[in-house]
Write a structure and sequence with these properties.
By secondary structure, this protein is an alpha+beta fold. The chain has three domains: 103 residues, Butyryl-Coa Dehydrogenase, subunit A, domain 1 (Orthogonal Bundle); 108 residues, Butyryl-CoA Dehydrogenase, subunit A, domain 2 (Beta Barrel); 141 residues, Butyryl-CoA Dehydrogenase, subunit A, domain 3 (Up-down Bundle), CATH 1.20.140. It has a four-stranded mixed sheet. A four-stranded antiparallel sheet has the order 2-3-7-6, with no helix packed on it. Helix 10 packs antiparallel against helix 11.
């Protein structure tokens, strides 16, 4: 297929590049010592949600200046309708915007609120809810965390046990969520809870918007294998939530939650991330300072492995563009999103292993100064551990591909 830009798309790409060059704050520099995320769409050294709450006043100001600049273009939430703060861009233009931001190495703003919560509310929310929550989210003024997983309900989300009991015009929420990305920085939470314990486990669930400052909400960051805290556990103890904060119908939150998860699939950002990492790996072979780290028994088998990674990155780029082309044609991708997520996650892990092979013992150097390529592949190796768990395990993705894509029976 021909993925070349049309004249109109090429003009938009130029506009994006010029905007980034002019508007991105000069003093908003990457901070590689603060690793607050594992997502494939993240730009190394940045996490806007963390930066906007930084204890460093200059970094916080720079992050907010960047959000304001994007918001003026309505590019924080470019795919949202204009009446809610978006630019109404089509899927191809949104892809170009994301692609150019990744290539320039600048962060997106308010990713969970924009890419997960916002589309869910647009599909299932009331007009009053949209008017209240979407515009400040599209300006980067209101951040969100997705509260789905629990200690006993990860991949098997339907087994969750957090309760939401109706009490007049409110729900009373009790329970625990875990692995909630960036929850400690969120202003609001969207929480899936069991509202009818006697219903079938895929029914009787309700999706609620919860102010994170509500009495009874306790958020505790969790430290990961890298020493960072990109997620948290959350405890709800007699938390009272207005019934007007329910998204969609009572007891039918499963359908809204599944819609949210269809938005949570790796896209073009992961492709650019891997392209740049592989290019730096190849360039290190000709760099005097970097080549000293390359293992002495470097041979053609490793050269072939690098070639395979290059081919796989091209495959991932085509999968992402194919998915976007379906959206542009008015179709809703289903199993294609799972193919994208699965291939990206496993490629992430293969990329990390290739870097480890290239640098041998030196690939274990963690401190960035004095390590090969700034220890990029050492950090990628630990990032990649969770790649086939995030946004649905590899097993779950394969089941979706088998049943929805290939039409195989569930049993």
């Amino acid at each position: 297929m021909d993925w070349k830009d049309t004249a109109q798309q090429a003009a938009f790409r130029t506009e994006v590049r010029e905007f980034i060059a002019d508007a991105f704050p000069d003093d908003y520099q990457p901070d590689h010592q603060s690793e607050q995320s594992l997502e494939p769409e993240d730009v190394a050294g940045y996490n806007w949600t963390v930066d906007a709450r930084s204890d460093d006043a200059d970094r916080q100001r720079a992050a907010r200046d960047w959000a304001e600049a994007l918001a003026q273009k309505r590019w924080v939430a470019p795919h949202w309708p204009s009446e809610y703060g978006g630019a109404g861009l089509g899927p191809i233009e949104e892809l170009i915007l994301q692609e150019e931001m990744m290539r320039a190495g600048v962060p997106t703003v308010n990713g969970i609120g924009v890419n997960l919560f916002g589309p869910t509310l647009l599909q299932y929310g009331t007009e009053e809810q949209k008017e209240e929550h979407l515009p400040p989210t599209a300006r980067g003024e209101r951040t969100w965390a997705q509260c789905f997983s629990e200690p006993g309900a990860g991949s098997d989300l339907a087994s969750l046990s957090t309760r939401a009991v109706r009490d007049g015009d409110e729900y009373v929420v009790n329970g625990q969520k875990v692995w909630t990305s960036l929850a400690q920085y969120a202003d609001w939470l969207f929480v899936l809870a069991r509202s009818d314990p006697d219903a079938h486990r895929h029914r009787g669930l309700t999706l609620l918007m919860v102010d994170s400052a509500s009495p009874g909400v306790t958020i505790r960051p969790i430290t990961d294998i890298r020493g960072a805290a990109p997620f948290a556990e959350i405890f709800f103890e007699e938390v009272r939530v207005p019934a007007t904060n329910r998204i969609g119908e009572e007891h039918r939150g499963w359908y809204a939650a599944m819609a949210t998860l269809t938005f949570e699939r790796a896209g073009i950002g992961a492709t650019i991330k891997y392209e740049k990492a592989l290019s730096r790996l190849i360039d290190s072979l000709d760099d005097e300072d970097e080549s000293r780290f390359v293992r002495a028994d470097w041979n053609d088998s490793l050269r072939h492995e690098i070639a395979r990674r290059h081919t796989e990155i091209s495959v991932l780029a085509n999968i992402a563009r194919f998915t976007v082309s379906k959206q542009a044609a008015g179709e809703v991708p289903e199993y294609e999103a799972s193919v994208n997520q699965l291939f990206s996650a496993e490629l992430h892990q293969r990329m990390a292993r290739t870097g480890a092979k290239m640098f041998g013992e030196s690939s274990g150097l963690w401190q960035r100064e004095g390590a090969p390529i700034g220890a990029e592949f050492a950090h990628m190796r630990l990032d990649a551990v969770a790649a086939t768990l995030l946004a649905g395990t590899a097993e779950i993705q394969r089941n979706v591909i088998a049943t929805r894509g290939l039409g195989l029976p569930r049993r």
